[in-house]
Amino acid sequence: RRAEAERDAVQQQLQQAIAERDQQHTASLEEQRQAEAERDAVQQQLQQAMAERDQQHVASLEEQRRAEAERNVVQQQLQQAMAERDQQHAALLEEQRRAEAERDAVQQQLQQ
Q1: Please, what sign has the CA dihedral across residues 35, 41, 42, 47?
Q2: What is the chain's Cα-based Rg?
Q3: How far apart are CA 51 and CA 48, in angstroms?
């Protein structure tokens, strides 16, 4: 009868130890699940941040390309305007030179 009581006590201790181990295992699994959920959330935020950064980079490159194209157009227009002004200036100088030559010729004829 005493051996039976000891066996019951040992069996009760064993069941208590198994129950504690199961609780710890359950708590460990829950902690692991929570850590994985947090890691997944952080990874998702990181991927979203990287996607946003990539979008901003693409938009920045597009804006830079557009600005360079506009600058090139303005520079081309400026060069064209300067070329036209130079042509007009050269034509004016030529006209002025011709007028002076005619005036000199008339003056020379008057002096003769």
Answers
A1: positive
A2: 48
A3: 5
pTM of the complete model beyond 0.90: no
Amino acid at the residue 35: A
The predicted-structure confidence for 77-100, as pLDDT tens digits, reads as follows: 999 999 999 999 999 999 999 999
Report d(CA 95, CA 92) in Å as an integer. Answer: 5
Task: Report the distance separating Cα 106 and Cα 109, nearest Å.
Answer: 5
Alpha helices (H) in the chain, listed in sequence order: 2-111
DSSP 72: H
CA 90 → CA 13, 79, 85, 98, 105, distances in Å?
Answer: 113, 16, 9, 12, 22
Q: What's the CA angle centered on 39, arms 35 and 40, to 5 degrees?
A: 115
As given in the structure block, the two tokens for residue 22 are 């199961």
- CA 2 to chain CA centroid, Å, is 80
What's the distance, CA 16 to chain centroid? Answer: 60
